[in-house]
Design goal:
Elements lengths: L1 H18 L1 H11 L3 H32 L2
Length: 68
């Protein structure tokens, strides 16, 4: 149940990230980030997040399998 709460909180943060266009525009201007690098960074972040969730699920499944 605790993991589900953490996941819901993470999803709320991601929704907030979509609304914060001012921050993204400031970051682009400050670091002169191109759209290609931005897409690559977003892809890498999404991939790492997906891998993290998959590994957490793998560990949970392993813990339930130990009891048998």
């Amino acid at each position: 149940m605790y993991k589900l709460i953490k996941l819901a909180r993470l999803l709320r943060i991601l929704k907030f990230g979509n609304k914060s266009n001012k921050l993204i525009k400031y970051m682009r201007a400050a670091f002169k980030i191109g759209s290609g690098f931005e897409r690559l960074s977003l892809f890498m972040f999404a991939s790492f997040l997906l891998f993290h969730i998959a590994s957490c699920l793998w560990l949970i499944i392993g813990k339930f399998g130990e009891g048998e």
